[in-house]
């Protein structure tokens, strides 16, 4: 998906996709990021208007590198990571990247009716859970108010389930210790 986004005519689409897959942030949150909200040293973005209230969003080393490169290209006068395009824009920043995202989805050979910008959030959260990150930490990263919402986003199936159940296989763990089960 990232390669398809890089090939698009919208020069910021690849950065939007990198954001989505490296942070689990919401579409609108990504587009509202300003450079003065980014702490490059500690790899954090301050999000004042998140859905669940203000929060600090941790970011990956790769995304930090991409943002530093984009900041350098934009120069010190640029405020927004995703500035508005065109003189008739009502906002100082982009408000949607759905159309170029759809083009990249098609270029990547994916189904545009199934793969929307929000799917990147689901993907990032699922990747964290599959990597064994505990749910309270995933909740902190994703900015969800509740663990039940985190669970709605984590799509766990297939090999991950098979690997988990194998941990319970008594054939691999030796005998049950009677002492642990005595009253």
Which structural traits does this protein have?
single chain; 183 residues; mainly alpha; three-stranded antiparallel beta sheet; globular
Can you give a write-up of this model?
The protein is mainly alpha-helical and 183 residues long. It is 47% helix and 5% strand. It has helices at residues 2-6, 13-23, 27-31, 61-74, 98-107, 117-130, 135-142, 147-153, 159-166, 170-173, and strands spanning 38-39, 44-47, 55-58. The protein has a three-stranded antiparallel sheet with strand order 1-2-3. Helix 2 runs antiparallel to helix 4 and helix 2 runs parallel beside helix 6 (117-130). The radius of gyration is 20 Å and the shape is globular.
Topology diagram in text:
Layout lengths: L1 H5 L6 H11 L3 H5 L6 E2 L4 E4 L7 E4 L2 H14 L23 H10 L9 H14 L4 H8 L4 H7 L5 H8 L3 H4 L10
Antiparallel strand pairs: 1-2, 2-3
Helix pairs in contact: 2-4, 2-6
Helix content, binned percent: 40-55%
Strand order of the largest sheet: 1-2-3
Proportion of strand residues = 5-15%
Please report the total strand number as a whole number. Answer: 3
If helices are DSSP runs of H or I spanning 4 or more residues, what is the number of helices? 10
Mean pLDDT across residues: 89
- Oligomer category: single chain
Structural class: mainly alpha
Rg from alpha-carbon coordinates: 20 Å
* Unreliable parts: none
The rounded distance between the terminal residues' Cα atoms is: 56 Å
The biggest sheet, with number of strands, parallel, antiparallel or mixed sense and barrel status, is: 3 strands, antiparallel
Rough outline: globular
Order of helices and strands: HHHEEEHHHHHHH
């Amino acid at each position: 998906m990232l390669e398809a986004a890089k090939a698009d005519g919208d020069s910021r689409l690849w950065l939007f996709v990198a954001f989505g897959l490296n942070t689990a942030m919401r579409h609108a949150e990504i587009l509202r990021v300003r450079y003065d909200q980014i702490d490059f040293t500690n790899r954090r973005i301050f999000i004042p208007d998140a859905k669940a209230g203000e929060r600090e969003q941790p970011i990956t080393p790769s995304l930090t590198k991409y943002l530093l490169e984009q900041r350098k290209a934009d120069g010190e006068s640029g405020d927004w990571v995703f500035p508005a395009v065109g003189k008739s824009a009502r906002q100082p920043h982009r408000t949607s990247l759905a159309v170029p995202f759809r083009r990249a989805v098609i270029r990547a050979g994916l189904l545009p009716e199934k793969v929307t910008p929000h799917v990147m959030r689901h993907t990032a959260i699922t990747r964290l859970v599959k990597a064994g990150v505990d749910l309270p930490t995933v909740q902190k990263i994703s900015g969800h108010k509740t663990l039940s919402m985190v669970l709605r986003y984590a799509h766990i199936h297939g090999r991950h389930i098979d690997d988990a159940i194998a941990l319970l296989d008594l054939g691999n763990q030796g005998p049950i210790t009677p002492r642990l089960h005595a009253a």
